[in-house]
Amino acid sequence: MQLLQDRRAIITGAAQGIGRAMVDSFVEHGATVLAIDIKPLDALHKNASHPEKLHSLQIDITQATAPERIMHAANEMLGGLDILVNNAGIASFMPITETSDVAWSEVLELNLSSVFRLCRDAVPLLKSSDSGRIINIGSVMSTFGGTGLAAYAASKHGVAGLTKCLASELGEFSITANFIQPGAILTDITRGSIRQYPEMETFWRNKAALGRWGEPADIAPVAVFLASDLGAFVSGTGVVADGAAMQAP
Predict the structure, then answer these.
(1) pTM for the predicted model, two decimal places
(2) Cα(197)–Cα(180) distance, rounded to whole angstroms?
(3) Distance (Å, rounded) from C-alpha 62 to C-alpha 81?
(4) Which end of the chain is more exposed for a tag (fewer CB within 10 A), N or C?
(5) Which of 47, 64, 13, 33 shows the shortest CA–CA distance to 219?
(6) Structural domain includes residue 194
(7) What is the pLDDT at residue 248?
């Protein structure tokens, strides 16, 4: 069953991890996707199951002109837009007293400010859709805090607040806005952190009631649900996918 037949989607941070898993799932469910990343996207095209449904644009989304260029590409390549997925993001792990203004700004710029600008510039296209969807990738840190994660947690709390405001303002146009709150997910980035801090793997595996780390493939179906007609009445909320980790003491 193809839940996203003929839908047109933008997915940022698409070269790897959760973003790549979402691209694959969206295409499998019938969507045409414009994949966005600052990194090369050749591998995404090479392994695409339906290459005719995949387009890409390599761009730094923090650039001032990026939102306009991305929306222009969506019009040219997709013929419009139904779904915007803001997935690109970074994390920095350092105590507050060691966090420089530059480090703080770098995280907030990518994780929050670029999300705001892309959402803002996507609204005119989404208004022309019969199934407008905004899906932002937050984190369990959209609700909680953590040692060494001040900039990251602040940015993800911001994503939560922004998404709720989008849902309130855009509901009259039948556009939904939600954010996904992944827990500890095995990606290239987190695997690098695990190699540096092996105890991190054990901590999060034991913390999750399901007894394991999540995989990008655990998050992609949540995005498909929110993007599809099945999620048409879900808006202004965060969907937690963390294996019940944050319920543990």
Answers:
(1) 0.96
(2) 26
(3) 21
(4) C
(5) 13
(6) no
(7) 60
**Who contacts 190 (Cβ-Cβ below 8 Å, separation ≥6)?**
184, 213
Domain hosting residue 144, numbered range: 8-187+215-238
CATH assignment at residue 146: 3.40.50.720
Measured distance CA(11)–CA(153) in Å, rounded: 22
Is 197 a residue of the active site? no
In whole angstroms, give the CA distance from residue 150 to residue 85. 24
| Number of domains forming the structure of the chain | 1
**pLDDT surpasses 70 at 229:** yes
What angle (nearest 5°) sits at the alpha carbon of residue 74, between those of residues 68 and 80? Answer: 115
- Of 125, 131, 152, 224, which residue is the catalytic one? 152
Summarize pLDDT for 25-79 with one digit per residue, the tens: 999 999 999 999 999 999 999 988 899 999 999 999 999 999 999 999 999 999 9
Query: Would 244 be classed as within a structural domain?
Result: no
pLDDT on residue 243 = 94
Sequence-distant contacts of 154-157: CB under 8 A, at least 24 apart? 154/108, 155/89, 155/107, 155/108, 155/111, 155/112, 156/111
Backbone angles phi, psi at 106, to 5 degrees: -60, -45
Phi-psi region of 230 (alpha: psi -120 to 50; beta: other; left: phi over 0): alpha
